Amino acid sequence: MKGLKTFKKGGVHPPGNKNLSEDKEIRNAVISELSVVAMSQHLGSPAEAVVSPGDTVREGMLIGKSTGFISGNIHSPVPGTVKEITDIYLPNGMTSKAVVIEMAGEFDRLGKESIETAWEQLSSKELIEIISSNGIVGLGGATFPASVKFSIPRGKKVEYLVINGVECEPYLTADHRLMLEKADQIIEGIKIIASIIKPEKLAIGIEINKENAISRIQEAALKADLPLEVVGLKVKYPQGDEKQLLKAVTGREVPSGALPLEIGCVVSNVGTVHAIYEAVVLGKPLIERVVTVSGGAISNPQNLKVRIGTPIRSLIEECGGFKKNPVKVVVGGPMMGFTIYDLDTPVTKGTSGVLALTAKEVRGSAQTACISCGRCIAACPMGLNPTTLFKYIDHSDYVSAEEIGLMDCKECGSCGYVCLAGIPLIQGMRLGKRMLRTKKVKS
Amino acid sequence: MSDNNNLLIESSPQIKQFDSTQSVMWSVSLCLLPAGVWGAWIFGPRVIGVLAASIIAALVSEAAMMYLVKKNTLKDGSAFLTGLLIGFNMPPAIPYYIPVVASVFAIVVVKWTYGGLGGNFMNPALAGRVFVFFSWTGPMTKWTMPHSLAAVDAVTKATPLGYVKSGLLDYTGSANGPAQFLVQNGYPHTVADTGVTSWLNAHLGLHLSNGYVDMFLGNIPGSLGEVSVLLLLIGSIYLFIRKIITWEIPVSYLVTFSLFIWVFGGTRFADGSYFSGDILFHLFTGGIILGAFYMATDMVTSPQTRKGMLIFGSGAGFLTFLIRIYGSFPEGVSLAIILMNIFVPMINKYTKSKRFGVEEKKESK
User: Fold this and answer.
1) Is A427–B11 a contact, with Cβ atoms under 8 angstroms apart?
2) Which of chain B's termini has less CB crowding within 10 Å, N or C?
3) Is the pLDDT of residue A266 over 80?
4) Are residues A265 and A148 both part of a single domain?
5) Chain B: nearest CA to A255, how far in angstroms?
6) Which residue range forms the structural domain that includes residue A424?
7) Is there a single domain that holds both residue B54 and residue B159?
8) Are residues A251 and A147 in the same domain?
């Protein structure tokens, strides 16, 4: 197809492997007897548990309260009893308080007909309040609280609302399935967001490897009479990053260190849009999400609608377990996801996928010295020089690294993916950024 | 399902592309193999001895340095490749100690005094070759005739480039180009060359002198690995397909070189006019194909960005032309590339990629 848009600078083409699960309809996952609900599932400060061991909770009841401007409410995914409040490891290696709930009693929503409420009369403020109280965060991966994103500061005007249907991470098909199966709801969700932030133009970016989703969304928008520009994009990683998406869709570049609002844009992921629809129209808090369970080691890859707090082990079991020995179990996509060691790690709001990868899929080889091939420079979508950054960081020269743009790095993993020498570039970037942040806090 | 306690914990990205330093080094070595076999075929089995000497010397030097710095770098294949390339740049009849000295110099001095793989600023194989070239110029310029030509003439003879260079010193003859000059002076060519050339002239309407087919296939004296343009090109196609080398350096190198040859290359001949240089002759002789595809593309010693690679390749092409046409040596590839190697840090400095979302200078629409 000609005339497809994409971002210009950098990017890589890892094998997509989406065929493993893209034709599998979203199924409700078996609900685990024990749910482990982390209090830190979003960007910002962790929620504070408002239940104690022994308490009875109902499905969708508030169990963790937002503790600041950038924070989020957490709700019980199941009815039951609070067994304990404990410390757990999150997939990214951080620790978090978690409420452990033993399932018991009756579900308030599951299996019951949901009632639609009209929202058109509600003000922006009321809608934001609903989104905030239902704990909606960005489901694309960053888990930034949605209510904060849509609270547009006075004086700023939104020109573009761009919906992110790119799903550029290999293997993941959760957003793809959602667009196919819940197109009408997504369109309704876009209307809700549009009524909050009042953009001049609406667009959705979808990569061309999801052609059926492009036409499905087009149909749904036409049916709902929504002037939504559906933009087909060339397949290229990391197009799902908001900066690359905006470059591809609007041609504008978000300035270094700034937010999309700086260029009059707001970006929201299709999963988030769907969650907003459920919160506003159905009054449903964010207690479940679609997770792609895939990878060469999984017997039967699937797209599952999973309650937050479900142990990853139970998802893998539901997909038939391992058919081959995995060398890595990844939470998230293969480019930005985290490896886990403990399969009892629970699903959080940011879990877009669970991948069990074989050695053949992971590849990689022994680390050698950098041979200056320049592939990382060509791959970096931010126009950075990863190998030089890594050298500075390796020599603890964080200030020089900052001068050549370390803070622009989004850890998309393109440089690490192409590195011939197997240098842990992203690990270096993370270390460098952390050192700079702690230094700034100190001074 | 039992717990798998061998799960890896690694930083993202969790997947890697197929290639690695090792696979690149061994792939390049593999692609050179056909041209090496051709060398052994036309110059005789001694070629294998020369290659073995240079490769073993390179590996032993690498192992010795590894022992000193307590690293294991033998597997990455870079020392093997350096040894192989040094062998490729030797005349077939070279005494064995010369490639050995070249390899030891390349590995110990050029590569490891800067910290080993990735640290050197000059291509080790070329620096090694240049070192022994100036140390033993006699044996380094004594060329064996290929079997296919030896019957017609002596056992040793100058390369086509060398023959033309010395012949042009005080030239007053009537030849309009190097190939014609060779034919007029009775430079030998094979029966196959005569046959194919006349077929080409008859069927494609060309006016080729005899000799081009021999040069293209490698039926000429020269360094043992550089003569077969055909096989070197076939190897490079594989490297392109695997994306181990990119087009920027070889193309800018050959285009710049050809352009200058075309403009100025004909001025030393009978009609002495500009824009009459013999591009084909200069591409098919000497080490330019080996240099442009296999040596100038060495990742360690070439620029990192696309723009930088184009500057680097063009510079090497221009310098090769200068040395070949106006210098005192018949050949200029090695010197041109290592001279450009010296400029690489500067090229890198001035060809940084533009950062996303950062205005560097005013952009006009």
Assistant:
1) yes
2) C
3) yes
4) yes
5) 4
6) 375-442
7) no
8) yes
Whether residue B228 contacts residue B218, with contact meaning beta carbons closer than 8 Å, is answered with yes
Residues A270 and A134 in one domain: yes
Lowest mean pLDDT among A137-141, A199-203, A387-391: A137-141
Does residue B172 sit in the same domain as residue B287? Answer: yes
Q: Which tens digit of pLDDT belongs to each residue from A326-335?
A: 999 999 999 9
pLDDT of residue B364: 43
Question: Which two three-digit tokens encode residue B76?
Answer: 């990455």
Q: Is A60 within a domain?
A: yes
**CATH number for A219:** 3.40.50.11540
Question: Backbone phi, then psi, for B214, in 5-degree steps?
Answer: -60, -45
Specify whether A392 is located in the same domain as A342. Answer: no
Q: Within its chain, how far is the Cα of B103 from the centroid?
A: 16
Q: Is A4 within a domain? A: no
pLDDT tens-digit series, residues A167-222: 999 999 999 999 999 999 999 999 999 999 999 999 999 999 999 999 999 999 99
Banded model confidence at residue B1, pLDDT cuts 50, 70, 90: very low
A417 falls within a domain? yes
For residue A388, pLDDT over 50 is answered with yes
Chains A–B, number of C-beta pairs less than 8 Å apart: 183
User: Chain A closest CA to B2's CA: distance in Å?
Assistant: 10
Verify whether the Cβ–Cβ distance B9 to A254 is below 8 Å. no
Looking up tokens 């058109």 gives: A120
CA nearest B348 in A: which residue? A374
Residue B78 lies in a domain: yes
Dihedrals φ, ψ of A98, to 5°?
A: -145, 145
End residue of a domain, out of A282, A304, A328: A282
User: Which amino acid makes up residue B322?
Assistant: L
Asked if B76 and A368 touch (Cβ cutoff 8 Å), the reply is yes
Which among A325, A208, A334, A387 has a CA at the least distance from the CA of B348?
Answer: A387
- CB within 8 Å of A225: residues ≥ 6 apart: none
Q: Which pLDDT belongs to residue B360?
A: 65
- Both tokens of B41, joined, read 């075929």
Boundary of a domain, candidates B140, B170, B192: B140
The rounded mean pLDDT for chain A is 94
Is B4 close to A326, i.e. CB distance below 8 A?
A: yes
Chosen from B12, B18, B123, B298 to mutate, greatest number of chain A CBs within 10 A: B12
Share of chain B above pLDDT 90, in %: 70
Q: How far is CA B299 from CA A316, A359, A375, in A?
A: 43, 28, 10
A252 contacts A239 by C-beta, under 8 angstroms: no
User: Which one of A225, A255, A282 terminates a domain?
Assistant: A282
Range A336-351 average pLDDT? 94
- What are B23's two structure tokens? 């696979």
Pairing of strands A288-294, A27-28: unpaired
Confirm whether A427 is domain-assigned. Answer: yes
Query: Domain tally for chain A?
Result: 3
For residues A266 and A120, membership in a common domain is answered with yes
Which residues face A65 on adjacent strands? A48
In this structure, the answer to whether residues B127 and B256 fall within a common structural domain is no
Q: What residues make up the domain containing B120?
A: 21-140
Percent of chain B at pLDDT exceeding 70: 95
User: pLDDT category, B363, cuts 50, 70, 90?
Assistant: very low
Inform me whether the C-beta atom of residue B17 falls under 8 Å from chain A C-beta atoms.
Answer: yes
Interface pTM (ipTM) of the complex?
Answer: 0.91
Exposure b/e, B337-346, CB count within 10 A at least 16 = b: bbbbbebbee
Share of chain A above pLDDT 90, in %: 90
Distance CA B33, CA B29 (A): 6
Looking at the structure, tell me whether residues B82 and B208 fall in a common domain: no
pLDDT digits (tens, 9 = 90+) for A10-69: 999 999 999 999 999 999 999 999 999 999 999 889 999 999 999 999 999 999 999 988
Helix (H) or strand (E) holding A270: helix A270-282
**Residue A325 CB contacts under 8 Å (≥ 6 apart), including other chains:** A297, A358, B4, B6
